[in-house]
């Protein structure tokens, strides 16, 4: 006789506490087998064996495993194709229902549809829940029922709709897990990856971390951002906890959380943004796409100190300060006239806190081609940004200590690059109108 179980499928929610789908699963009278799948189809496309995100997930899973061991259970971690994993689970257990939390990226939506269809053939219910956002899909719409494409009215509606129930902690009870001996987690080497510099710590959010966030967030040398982007990305912290803390302590940080959900709903409603401009007229831009200049940008060798400092921070740590992200993105698209998709792909490869919707939305914002886009003629001056946000050069000296030696070899003149960008953008828009 096979044991009758329910399954909870961890994905972007790597925590036991305040986890909606897990809470729903544990509320049933059937033991819950917790699983995680290192999806072969995703991992095989990652170019770097020292991928800091894979290491983050691996260490977060080990933390989960330690907690599950305390309650006599174990995480079942697989490496393979998702459908094959569920086939194996159905052969091993009498599976009644599969629980998980919803994902909103096009690839994930398609995967879940395939899994749901496959499970239905085996009379297994597939139940998914809202967990990684406060409002999803069609919950925040214009009065005419269409999705918002501009942030400010979306944020206003989001705030007006918010009630305490939306950020109430999901109940946590851990006595419903399937009892079994501890299972081993596949090693990074088995997965085809290597250890990185990352040392995982369970994320936390205190009022002190965001109390004066609005006063310090733009100054990269101060390093006063929360660094919780990766925790929200992989669900090692609950968005409800974040919103609850933001409401009491800092409205600007709450706005950042709303931006995150704005870009998520843009991706859900307009999946074409993954590889084309939100505003199609901007697909007419004649990008220069100089590969040697792109390589210099990637390596932090443009001759613009703040741009190079940002790229070096990214390459060394998997993180870049938010203000500097805007500067380096604008520089690539406007100064070098290199397709925003090149920069987006590079960030996708390097950023620990990479999230498709935010990465895509912010790159299109920088290029001027996205929803809620900055006007195309807004072009960041790297030197002016330095004087305003790093006037003592502390950030630049930290990440680009030999900056003075490189300034004379700047790959482009700001004034000339600005004029070239304005001309190229105007031509593209005129072509679209004709």
Automatic annotation (TrEMBL):
The record marks 287, 340, 363 as: Electron transfer via tryptophanyl radical. InterPro entries: Crypto/Photolyase_FAD-like_sf (IPR036134), Crypto/Photolyase_N_sf (IPR036155), Cryptochr/Photolyase_FAD-bd (IPR005101), Cryptochrome/DNA_photolyase_1 (IPR002081), DNA_photolyase_1_CS_C (IPR018394), DNA_photolyase_N (IPR006050), Rossmann-like_a/b/a_fold (IPR014729). One of its GO terms (molecular function) is FAD binding. PROSITE patterns: DNA_PHOTOLYASES_1_1, DNA_PHOTOLYASES_1_2, PHR_CRY_ALPHA_BETA. Keywords: Chromophore, FAD, Flavoprotein, Lyase. Residues 4-134 form the Photolyase/cryptochrome alpha/beta domain. One of its GO terms (biological process) is nucleobase-containing compound metabolic process. Pfam families: DNA_photolyase, FAD_binding_7. The keyword Flavoprotein applies. Binds 1 FAD per subunit. FAD binds at residues 213, 253, 256-263. Its cofactor is FAD; (6R)-5,10-methylene-5,6,7,8-tetrahydrofolate. Belongs to the DNA photolyase family. This is Deoxyribodipyrimidine photolyase. It comes from Sphingobacterium corticibacter. The lineage of its organism: Bacteria, Pseudomonadati, Bacteroidota, Sphingobacteriia, Sphingobacteriales.
């Amino acid at each position: 006789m096979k044991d009758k179980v329910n399954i909870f499928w961890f994905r972007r929610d790597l925590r036991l506490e305040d986890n909606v789908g897990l809470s729903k699963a544990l509320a049933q009278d059937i033991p819950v087998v917790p699983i995680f799948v290192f999806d072969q189809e995703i991992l095989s496309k990652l170019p770097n064996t020292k991928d800091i995100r894979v290491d983050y997930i691996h260490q977060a899973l080990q933390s989960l495993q330690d907690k599950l061991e305390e309650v006599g259970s174990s995480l079942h971690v697989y490496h393979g194709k998702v459908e094959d994993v569920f086939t194996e689970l159905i052969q091993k257990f009498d599976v009644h229902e599969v629980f998980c939390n919803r994902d909103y990226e096009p690839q994930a939506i398609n995967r879940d549809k395939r899994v749901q269809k496959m499970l239905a053939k085996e009379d297994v219910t597939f139940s998914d829940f809202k967990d990684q956002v406060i409002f999803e899909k069609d919950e925040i719409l214009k009065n005419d029922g269409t999705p918002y494409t501009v942030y400010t009215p979306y944020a206003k509606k989001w705030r007006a709709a918010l009630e305490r129930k939306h950020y109430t902690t999901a109940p946590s009870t851990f006595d419903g897990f399937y009892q079994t001996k501890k299972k081993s987690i596949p090693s990074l080497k088995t997965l085809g990856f290597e250890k990185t510099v990352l040392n995982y710590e369970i994320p936390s959010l205190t009022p002190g971390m965001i109390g004066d966030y609005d006063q310090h967030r733009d100054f990269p040398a101060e390093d006063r951002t929360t660094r919780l982007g990766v925790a929200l990305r992989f669900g090692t912290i609950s968005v409800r906890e974040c919103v609850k803390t933001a409401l009491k302590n800092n409205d600007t940080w709450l706005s950042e959380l709303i931006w995150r959900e704005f870009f998520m709903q843009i991706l859900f409603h307009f999946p074409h943004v993954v590889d084309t401009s939100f505003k199609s007229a901007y697909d007419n831009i004649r990008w220069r796409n100089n590969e040697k200049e792109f390589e210099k940008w990637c390596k932090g060798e443009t001759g613009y100190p703040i741009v190079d400092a940002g790229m070096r921070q990214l390459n060394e740590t998997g993180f870049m300060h938010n203000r500097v992200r805007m500067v380096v993105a604008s520089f690539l698209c406007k100064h070098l006239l290199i397709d925003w998709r090149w920069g987006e792909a590079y960030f996708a490869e390097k950023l620990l806190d990479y999230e498709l919707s935010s990465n895509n939305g912010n790159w299109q914002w920088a290029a001027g081609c996205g929803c809620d886009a900055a006007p195309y003629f807004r072009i960041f001056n790297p030197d002016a940004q330095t004087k305003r946000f790093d006037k003592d050069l502390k950030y630049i000296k930290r990440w680009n200590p030999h900056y003075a030696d490189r300034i004379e070899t700047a790959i482009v003149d700001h004034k000339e690059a600005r004029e070239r960008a304005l001309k190229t953008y105007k031509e593209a828009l005129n072509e679209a109108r004709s």
